[in-house]
Amino acid sequence: MTYTLYIGNKRYSSWSMRPWVLFKAFNIPFDEKLVFFGSDLASQRIEFSKFLPSAKVPCLFDSAASSAAIFDSLAIVEYIAETYPAVWPSDKLARAFARCAAAEMHAGFGDIRTDCPMNVALRIELGPRSEALQRDIDRLTELLSEGISRFGGPWLAGKEFTAADAFYAPIASRCKTYGIELGGEAGSYLDRLFDHPAVKQWVDEGITEPGIVARYEEDTKRGRKVLKNLGEQMLLDFLGL
Q1: Is residue 53 helix, strand or coil?
Q2: pTM of the model
Q3: For the purposes of burial, counting CB atoms within 10 Å of the CB of 127, is it exposed (0-12), middle (13-18) or buried (19 or more)?
Q4: Domains and CATH numbers, the chain
Q5: What is the CA radius of gyration of the chain?
Q6: Cα dihedral across residues 133, 138, 142, 144: positive or negative
Q7: Dihedral pair phi/psi, residue 33, rounded to 5°
Q8: pLDDT tens digits, 182-210
């Protein structure tokens, strides 16, 4: 095994989800190392720093390159693209758009991140949206619609699933969690993305994994109404209750 990918809880870790989904979608062999987040952030950083250079996930180690560590989700994708160029579109313009879209997700959409923390297992009644959150949602709709319109879909930059789609997988999950529906092609695209086998596997494993962290659960809820807890529902269904 050449690649070892360290990830955080699948229930919460949007940053980890991106490269993991990409590896799975392209059938790139890797060894998964799941490290659970702790109840205390300072203690978590101390513990993670023992084996992760940035004390954060995701982090990729390549044993074929003297166990070199790549500790940023976008850098991991670019590193993998050196060996698997198909993770980006082959068409020049589509590739440029895909990189722009991934970079915007990597650095932007801060109000969606802040107001709608990732939690694949809960369904939350979002309630009134701030102007800032609505601007992010409007921009998201615009960007996704542009990609589908320019390159014909069904994926963000054309016919093939690429790194750009992997970068928007956490947003597809967030929209499900908080009941955010985008109009037109943007909404249809997010539905397709959420149903992609690699995305579905991550979400399903996140719903059932142990390691629930109270501070993340409370950050998701923030006094908002919990419409459904999919983990609890799956347990009840299993028990026939």
Answers
A1: coil
A2: 0.95
A3: exposed
A4: 3-86 (3.40.30.10), 89-202 (1.20.1050.10)
A5: 18
A6: positive
A7: -120, 105
A8: 999 999 999 999 999 999 999 999 999 99
